[in-house]
Specification:
heterodimer, A: alpha/beta, Transcription Regulator spoIIAA, 4 helices, B: Heat Shock Protein 90, globular
């Protein structure tokens, strides 16, 4: 798994590539904890696989962002991953955008 | 085709085992989506068996029985623990449980596989995916 971090006018984008699973989830958490950010977009367009530990890690990141009064949007979810969010009802918890640009637009408002 | 796998209760073995099982299933010609579902459910069941069943005791193996034909793939995962009752698990989709960190693996298995059965003791899960 690779995580690229970039800043877009105060919105931090974490672009994740590869698999978010039991062995890579701690690394994603660490990458997130390195940055103190309030407005976050996690771009999942290049994520090929996610398991329940990956879902739990995203929930944890969301909780931490909210504790700091921030916002978190998910973008670019491949269909398979979107279906896992629907099955687990996590689509009710997260704000999901079709593209990174849509998520950035919403976070900038 | 049928094959038995035995793996020690070591979480670092999950990926390798799952990759071995998927390699065994290659001749079944599964779709990408079916492969994803089988991999995810196998890994979730394997992690639960190692962690909650065998308490990550490396001396205790998890036994996998994998079988396929033209109609279905069957994967059975058995640990040496006391067993559990999946019905007693909290519903991870309830609003007050959505922020919790665990409990989604069994729920995903229930939804992604076509048939899921536990033995009476609750230490073996048998998962079936029908091939269309």
């Amino acid at each position: 798994m690779e995580v690229q971090t970039s800043d877009h006018n105060g919105v931090t984008v974490f672009r994740v590539k590869g698999e978010i699973n039991l062995s890579t989830s701690p690394d994603l958490k660490r990458q997130f904890e390195k940055h103190t950010v309030r407005r976050v977009v996690v771009d999942l367009a290049d994520v090929s696989y996610i398991d329940s530990s990956g879902l739990a890690t995203l929930v944890e990141i969301l909780k931490k962002t909210k504790v700091h009064g921030g916002s978190l949007g998910l973008s670019g979810m491949p269909d398979k991953i979107r279906s896992l969010f629907e099955i687990t009802k996590l689509d009710k918890l997260f704000t999901v955008y079709a593209t990174q640009a849509d998520a950035l637009d919403a976070a900038s408002k | 085709m049928k094959k038995e796998f035995r793996v020690s209760s070591d979480l670092s073995k999950v990926q390798e085992t799952s990759s071995d099982v998927l390699g065994f299933l290659k001749p079944a010609g599964l779709s990408e989506s079916a492969l994803y579902d089988i991999r995810l459910c196998l890994e979730e069941a394997l992690i639960n068996a190692m962690k909650y069943g065998n308490g990550l005791d490396r001396s205790k193996p998890v036994r996998l029985d994998v079988e396929f034909d033209k109609r279905q793939v069957r994967v059975s995962v058995e640990d040496e623990g006391p067993g559990f009752s999946p019905r007693k698990l909290a519903d991870c989709t309830r609003d007050d449980n959505l922020l919790k960190g665990s409990g989604r693996g069994v729920h995903l298995i229930r939804h992604l596989m076509d048939r899921v059965e536990y033995n009476e003791k609750g230490n073996r899960v048998m998962m079936v995916k029908y091939l269309s």
